[in-house]
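Interim report to the steering committee. The following record documents the input for Metallo-beta-lactamase domain-containing protein (432 residues).
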Amino acid sequence: MMIENTIENSATTIQFYAGLKTIGGTIFEIKYKNERFIADFGMVFQNKEGVQVRPQTIISDLQTIGVIPMISGVLKTDVVDKNATIAISHLHLDHMGLLQYVHPDVPIIMSEESKTLYEHLHTIEEEPNVNVGQQVKGVPFHQPFKVSEHIKVEFFPVNHDVLGATAIKITTPDATIVYTGDIRLHETDVDTANLPNIAGSPDLLIIETTNVQEEFLDSNPVIQSEADQLMPALLEIESPIIFNIYHRNVKRLETLIEAARQKEKLIVFEPETAYLVQAFNLEAPHVRYLIDEQDASKNVVQIQRIQPITLDEVRDNFSSVWLQSSYHHIRTLLELPVKGATYVHSNGVPLGSFDPMYAELLEWIEKLGMKIVVLGVSGHAAAAQIKWMADAMQAKVTIPLHGFTPELLTGPYQTFLPEINKIYPISSLLKG
């Protein structure tokens, strides 16, 4: 259908800044008169290693090359718009990686669980430049929250591979919008499957389509949980394990710790990761953290409840150790007898072949005589599950985004594919 880019009778409009025909960087804005609600603030792509940034002009530089969209009133270089609020569906960089550039007077809301994780990520210096205590508010699930005079939101928990992921229902006087964020459905997952019952039949449904691609259309993988899929594969590995992980997936940490316990292995984390293990009460007698005896300044966090271990001790007991090795620490493996070990790539950085560092990681693994095993679970629902969700939500208009081929998804009634930076009155979408 054709939608004119004009403001009609509806006071509520929607505008997309990023997230269309891509799986990276999601930002859109709901506006009622002068009240602004911005959902997600994701990074379109990251600065490549070795490219120098210019601190005095970093925001304008990043806008010029398309990392930061041309969005007004919310960035540190802007005159702040006091009518704007930013909400974050979950703490993946493609949904919140630009928060470091937000003006300190612009309120940021996210689920309470997300805020807890966000605070810990700041402690280990993985997230910069936001005063979490003053600027960020944690919002409870299932409790309507008024962000401005006429706009209210409600957060609903959903299953994704990060703590605190939420779907968001946005209500204005003349429109109701539901944004799923990123979702997946497992057999034991009640929250996501129940979303149509508690937030369904909106005017607009904005739904992710990461796995809605031609090669996945006939696939409908249903698993009970991450642990059910990953645990058997981990327990089958007999060689010493070197692994990488993604800090924001706390459940993955829990699974690795339990698998190591069952294999009667010590599991050794880097200090930053060990801090998160302790923060979420996952420590256990067989958990250790690696200390740098030569440079104590590298131990940037305080860990009280997990025992330290030195690299020499790891070397002496290597056959009974599972060792974390993030890519930026991979040279440490030169000092260990890793030949014949298994490198378990478990959604850590570099995430995949789209990252130039991934090829370098594979070169390191080959040169060190290790074999690689990729053990991960997608954080995104299968195409058939996304289609089920879109149909079950019964929205008047379905807007698919956050995928390479969103046009492959159709809603139960009307489906609309927006364009970047156009302002759409919601009344015109509903008339279509």
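The chain has two domains: 12-216+379-431, 226-374. The committee is asked to note this result when reviewing the revised timeline.
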